[in-house]
Amino acid sequence: MSSSLSVYLLDVAATRALVGSRDAQLLQVIRESFGDELAFDDDYFSHEIERGAPTAYEALRAVVEGGPFSDDEGHAFQYGYAYRRLCSLTGSFLDNDCFTPHRGGWLSEAGQGMKALGITAVSVEDFEFGHLPTLPYTYTPGCGEWTPDRIAQALAEFEATKRAIDASGQAPPLEPYVVDAVMQCLGWMRHAAARPGFGVIGFRS
Question: 62, 112, 154, 188: least surrounded by Cβ within 10 Å?
Answer without folding.
Answer: 112
